[in-house]
Amino acid sequence: MSDIAFLFPGQGSQRPGMGRDLTERHPELLERYYRPADELLGFGLSDLCFEGSAEDLLPTGITQPAVFLTSIAILDVLRARGFDPAMAAGHSLGEYPALVCAGVLEWQDALRLVARRGALMAGVNERTPGAMAALIGLGAQQAEALCAQTRERTGAVVEVANYNDPSQQVVSGERDAVREVAAAAKAAGAERAVLLKVGAPFHCSLMRDVEEEFAAELDAVTFHDPRIPVLANVTAAAVRSGAEARENLRRQLAGAVRWSSTLRAMAEAGAGTFVEAGPGRVLSGFCRNTLPEAVCYPAGEARRIDRMAGALRERSPLPV
Fold it and tell me: Which 8-state DSSP code applies to residue 169?
């Protein structure tokens, strides 16, 4: 099916019990991914995925490898069911399983990078406590203007980190500045301004402190040229080489996630059916809001994969 694109979610999509139903139906996933991941990381990530509470999964150093591992297991199941995408993209840490999907990274190397990325990001937050807030019902230009006004007035770091869909932007930066922008957004007519439960101020200039250290981690890993187009967060354009993929991941730490532009670029390249290959349904919502004519399927659980497979056989829309 040449119009299918896989979308891989990022932090915030974690769920208690994620992946457990897949391993119950496909026990081979335990030996293929989960037990090797536990050994590679040196702790029981699989137990945290299957049995951990929402609080257990909240620390950045746990969330990021847990969402990655669940996405890789879902990718395996989708491929076993005969679904191979024409292109892929991932939201923030989701860019790592997207690169695995495209043949750029081996999944073990990607997991090591994700775990190190999470640890470095958490360290930034310890040195400079930050926050993130979702501005719902506010356009990109309005969000950028509010951040600029707050920076000018306070000198603090606050920037648009995620352009998620036409009416949802996420801002990131120093804690008080983010709260000020959130309050200003409400006063400017935003439907809501929600402080996010995250472990660090992702995708803003505060992360530049760890770019060099993470670049060394990236340089130690082999990046292959992509077998299918994979679109990068920082450019919303297809990656042409392994070297370009490595550089985009370095820039992604402090760069904004241009997600709505990524979805539009995928649609312009021929994608009409989008499969959210990871836990949760966040990206399906962004897809519906950005591309109303597209068909979006969440595939984070075995039952949803079954429903998607049946619908795609008929090529009929299936509500999420």
Answer: E
Just list the catalytic residues.
Answer: 92, 203
CA–CA distance, 256 with 171 (Å, rounded to integer): 10
End-to-end alpha-carbon separation of the chain, Å? Answer: 20
CA angle, corner 215, sides to 210 and 219, nearest 5?
160
> What percent of the chain stands above pLDDT 90?
91
The answer to whether residue 319 scores a pLDDT higher than 80 is no
Positive or negative CA dihedral for 49, 120, 99, 169?
A: positive
What are the helix and strand counts (H, E) for the chain?
14, 9
| Residue 87: pLDDT band with limits 50, 70, 90 | very high
Parallel, antiparallel, or unpaired for β 158-165 and 168-174? antiparallel
Predicted confidence (pLDDT) per residue in 90-101, tens digit: 999 999 999 999
